[in-house]
Design goal:
CATH class of one domain: Mainly Beta
Shape: globular
Strand order of the largest sheet: 22-21-24-27-26-25-28-29-23
Number of strands: 29
CATH topology of one domain: Immunoglobulin-like
CATH architecture of one domain: Sandwich
Length: 507
């Protein structure tokens, strides 16, 4: 605004035709507006903590010391006319007009950690960051009773800074990532159950551009979460030149912190602490490069939620062929090649598929006729009462196969819950409708077959919002999903309506 005023004054001085009494009056008014704005403009604190604050993007004409601490003070000035020293025990700064665009700050200690390994407390200040279109796309939060997990997504690679507290003072601590990437994870631990925490996120990209600050709040759960998370669907293991490639899909929604893949050459690991760790993180694929030819490798993938609970485990296997050896696809049914157990407890022979409780949204998924009906848009649970089978070492494996897509088989374990009341597993939403084959295999501790129960799942397609409401929620995504035919039809319809309206107006 000052530059605009100066330019206008130069223009009028160089043009006598514009120099008049009215012009002088306009200058007085304009000067008064500029001074009023400068003196009354609100202060924006770009750098602050419990010890200090620095006023940003403002010019003060008073010339008084307006920020101070035990270590230093910051003296304001009248534009670039007045100057003074900003000094303290540790340093001094020559004052004048200084523009503060934004600062990443440090503050007191924290109990959390970040994805870049900079967890715990962080102290000290940061640097000045210029403004740009660089932005924080989203911040999603997963809540536990004593933990909060924050997933920060940027629209381009950058470093992120996270401040938090029990109030908007954000005096709980500061976490900062030390690498340029689009996704950052910050974890706060040892929190108070049922408490609301406030947080703010700011980021800087590789060229020094600053993202606008995001301020939100999140509340910890009131009680401890002991429910196991869902198993992922579509765990696939494929041979590669250097070993095996594993890929999977994260369960939709929920409070998943990470996945852990373990392997064994004996059988599928039934616990995240069994076998060798192949991968642990938040990705959707992994390479296993330490395989030996002529061996079968059994993989189990566990999801872990923010409260530390693990899923029952999704499983897959792969045989590492010898050089020149022809390998044929193996059946995903663990019961197919299993040697029959020599002795079987009679209670196993009494089991039926209906003994396994299949629920969705805490409601039984079996109708009056005994059909198992599921909604493809919801997660579901499979459970067996602990007392239904003998308390001996055994493995329960569930396989779900889409009859229209026989190559897609979802296989996972049933595991005893913490209070030993059920063998259970939570399964991610199937995502589509159709007829699915269900097979539940029970093996003894030597992996010999005890019994296999089969049934059918009738899955309805996920409930869809109307086109209109989907467009309101996600217009860009709706445009991408709807076929060109319908958009052409819509344009033609609008044209016809327009012609009718125009004809009626003209008549």
């Amino acid at each position: 605004m000052i530059n605009m005023c100066m330019s206008w004054c130069r223009l009028t001085n160089n043009n006598p035709m514009m120099f008049s009494t009215h012009t002088k009056a306009y200058r007085v008014v304009l000067t008064g507006v500029v001074l009023g704005w400068l003196l009354t403009a609100p202060h924006t604190f770009a750098l602050s903590s419990t010890n200090y604050q620095i006023t940003a993007d403002s010019i003060n004409f008073v010339g008084t010391e307006n920020t101070a601490s035990t270590n230093y003070g910051l003296r304001d000035s009248g534009g670039e006319v007045a100057t003074g020293d900003s000094s303290g025990v540790l340093y001094s700064i020559k004052a004048g007009y200084r523009q503060m665009l934004g600062v990443i700050t440090g503050s007191s200690g924290s109990s959390g950690s970040s994805d870049s390994g900079s967890g715990g407390s962080s102290s000290g200040g940061g640097g000045i960051l210029p403004q740009s279109a660089f932005a924080v796309q989203s911040v999603t939060v997963a809540s536990g009773a004593t933990v909060l997990l924050f997933d920060v997504s940027l629209n381009q690679p950058g470093k992120a800074v996270f401040v938090w507290g029990v109030s908007t003072l954000y005096d709980g601590g500061t976490l900062a990532s030390d690498s340029f990437q689009q996704n950052h994870v910050f974890k706060l631990e040892n929190l108070v159950p049922g408490t609301t925490y406030y947080f703010a996120v700011q980021a800087m990209n590789e060229i020094g551009s600053q993202a606008g600050q995001i301020r939100q709040s999140a509340t910890t759960l009131a009680t401890v979460d002991t429910t196991a998370p869902a198993n992922p669907l579509r765990l696939v293991v494929e041979p590669s030149v250097i070993g095996s490639k594993l890929s999977w899909e994260h369960p939709v929604g929920g409070d998943i912190e990470l996945v852990k893949v373990v392997r064994s050459t004996e059988f599928y690991p039934t616990d995240p602490d069994e076998g060798e760790v192949v991968y642990e993180g938040r990705g959707t694929s992994a390479l296993d490069t330490t395989l030996q030819s002529g061996k079968t490798y059994y993989y189990t993938l566990f999801t872990k939620d923010v409260s530390g609970n693990y899923s029952s485990g999704a499983i897959a296997k792969m045989y590492r062929a010898r050089p020149g050896e022809t390998v044929y696809p193996e059946s995903s049914d663990v019961f197919v090649n299993a040697e029959p157990a020599p002795t079987v407890d009679p209670r196993f022979n009494l089991l039926t598929i209906l003994d396994f409780l299949i629920t969705q949204d805490n409601k039984m998924a079996i109708d009056d006729t005994g059909k198992i009906l599921l909604d493809g848009g919801e997660q579901f649970k499979i459970a067996l009462d602990y007392t239904k089978v003998p308390e001996v070492l055994k493995t329960m494996v569930v396989s779900i196969k889409d009859k229209a897509r026989p190559d897609e088989v979802f296989t996972f374990l049933l595991r005893v819950n913490d209070d030993k009341t059920k063998y259970e597993a939570l399964v991610d939403k199937l995502g589509r409708g159709g007829n699915f084959a269900l097979a539940i295999s029970i093996l003894d501790h030597k992996h010999r077959g005890i019994t296999q129960l089969v049934g059918d799942l009738v899955v309805s397609a996920p409930k869809q919002l109307s086109l209109f409401f989907r467009f309101l929620q996600d217009p860009i995504g709706s445009v991408q999903r709807v076929s060109i035919f319908w958009w052409v039809l819509l344009v033609l319809l609008i044209g016809v309506i327009g012609r009718i309206v125009r004809s009626s107006v003209l008549s």
